[in-house]
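Thread title: Can someone regenerate the structure for this chain?

I was given the following input by a collaborator and told the matching structure tokens would be attached. They weren't. Posting the sequence so someone can regenerate them.
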Amino acid sequence: MATTLAEIRAKLQATENRGSGNSQSGGDNAIYPHWNIAEGSTARLRFLPDGNTKNSFFWAERAMIRLPFAGVKGQADSKPIVVQVPCMEMYGEACPVLAEVRPWFKDPSLEEMGRKYWKKKSYVFQGFVRENALGDDKTPENPIRRFTISPQIFNIIKAALMDPEMEELPTDYQRGLDFQIVKTSKGGYADYSTSKWSRKESALTAEEQAAIDAHGLFNLSDFLPKKPTEADLKVIKEMFEASVDGQPYDPDRWAAYYKPYGLNVPEGAAKPAPAALDDADEDTPVPVATAPVAEEPNTAPTAPVAEAKPANMRAEDILAQIRSRQKQ
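Best answer:
Regenerated them for you:
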């Protein structure tokens, strides 16, 4: 774990340089839903270090890929659904979905489709809610809460850490800083661009220190989705191609692996082999994806999707088109 601000800055800079070149929910109210605070209000948080001392940062990055489906197979009145699957880049490995999608951005006719399937990032933090803007929120027995932070807020946090005027780690127990999440609106969407670090340092209270002593700190990586197995990756690939193809979600084939939140699977449901799973180890355990970590709704409008030709193309045709272009 990085113990000085200089070490964090060096790590952030190294991460940014690399980037420029190219779950569990807990079942309680441990996650603080800051996105539900009223417009014009402020929630004041105090971040804490990661319990995993090998993590240089006081957050864990979460990267998910959203696979949209027009509905559920066999349900005539079903509405569009989305299945979230882990992106392998979250574990420092190449992601097969992004490997297919990345070249789409070189073709204007495929760019909008590429945005739809690109990874969505969020960041898991932990700490205390020092000023609660949610009137109906109840502090759990363990007052150390978890926060799912969007890229917009994370960029504010990160920029301040790189500012030489910040002299101490904001998670320092004695000289740390609070972070104020300020909710406004812009263009009809929630906006957090005026969120900021407090200017005045403050020590943890005796009650806060006692909570850390009693409950300990979370290992933030425990709240990331489990790394997919080889079997899982083949299921993800099959679902990805079906989604691009416009097929409905097939619970008989995929619900035992990955499913949309709220879809029930009968106890003891069998795990049918995916189309490309003939060479997988049948004894490899394949966990059902858990409910997604609560996260902030979209805070900015996305570009309108035009009636583009790729939406009506089969997944195999799009992939064949991409691969053919790469060989030229």
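The first helix runs from residue 5 to 20.
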